[in-house]
Amino acid sequence: IVAALGKRSVVLVGMMGAGKSTIGRRMATRLRLPFVDADNEIEAAAGMSIPDIFEVHGEPHFRDGEARVIARLLDSGPILLATGGGAFLREDTRQRIRDKAISLWLKADADVILRRVRRRENRPLLKTADPAATIARLIEARHPFYEQTDITIDSRDVPHEKIVEEGIIAL
Ligand code: S3P
């Protein structure tokens, strides 16, 4: 469908609540690529939920598992991969994504993110007294990494199809 893609995957990057899974699923259908959600794959590999992995084993353990799962998925052939918000912060993961995929940052404002991540029990990083402040802090720390993606798409409150279309055109 998009010839420029060749055998490369498409990897969606960005904060929780930016719409990576929703947009990713639709984009995958359009591109005729299998959609894979890295968080789901990590849970399947670990046999436990992400909040449980954080609680039982801690974040560093989760991050190592996440990097391994992403490496395996990118080796498995062209896919559309939605990554967890922290994955692109690792140098080895960024390098693998650069080698095998086109990366696309779904960029969302803090207020949009806060509105979308109401079910915080699924997001261990937001189990804090002041989620708005946590989101602001994460955005500040992460944007320099997200800016290293190949493509940036604004994930604002417009119909999903419009964002999908923008992403496909940019590939
Ligand atoms: C995380 C985001 C989550 C999940 C984990 C950590 C992060 O994925 O991987 O809770 O560090 O931002 P989503 O971005 O899909 O919510």
From TrEMBL:
UniProt KW keywords: Amino-acid biosynthesis, Aromatic amino acid biosynthesis, ATP-binding, Cytoplasm, Kinase, Magnesium, Metal-binding, Nucleotide-binding, Transferase
Residues involved in ATP binding: 17-22, 123
Pathway membership: Metabolic intermediate biosynthesis; chorismate biosynthesis; chorismate from D-erythrose 4-phosphate and phosphoenolpyruvate: step 5/7
Catalytic reaction(s) noted: shikimate + ATP = 3-phosphoshikimate + ADP + H(+)
UniProt binding sites for substrate: 39, 63, 85, 142
Broadest EC class assigned to this enzyme: transferase
GO MF term set: ATP binding; magnesium ion binding; shikimate kinase activity
EC nos: 2.7.1.71
GO biological process: amino acid biosynthetic process; aromatic amino acid family biosynthetic process; chorismate biosynthetic process
Cell location: Cytoplasm
Positions of Mg(2+) binding: 21
Cofactor, free-text remark: Binds 1 Mg(2+) ion per subunit.
Assigned GO CC terms: cytosol
Protein name per the record: Shikimate kinase
Organism listed in the record: Tardiphaga robiniae
Portion of the full sequence shown: 18 to 188 of 213
